[in-house]
Amino acid sequence: MKRPEEIKREYIHLIERHLDELIRNKAGKMFGIEDFSRMLFVHPTHLSNTIKEATGTSACGIYQLKIMEMALRLLADTSLSIKDIALLLTYEPSQFTKWFKRIINLTPKQYRLKLSSLGPMRVNSETMTILKRYSDIPLCF
Question: Is residue 95 situated within a structural domain?
């Protein structure tokens, strides 16, 4: 495996592990690109350039996508309050709602209501449709 592909794979793995730790209250803070680059023993600029080259999306964009995937999963699969989900993902609740609405075009509450009206078989399909649309949006400026 070439080094850029290895960095991409490890970066995504670290993000997923970190988000799992966040929702289990095992992580004290939300990591940034600098934290991930230290864990991968590369410079932050090298990490950003490598991820962009390997995926066509910025390192920040991949990170935001993974956070959104976790938010969508928590909204769909748990009874946690929106405030608790926001806090688990280290957002202030009002900022979480603004961020979510900017990307998904629904508030977290509206998203949950939409899912509840679809029934269990359609929830996964709806989430995948949203993630596909979301992955086409520029995330980091």
Answer: yes
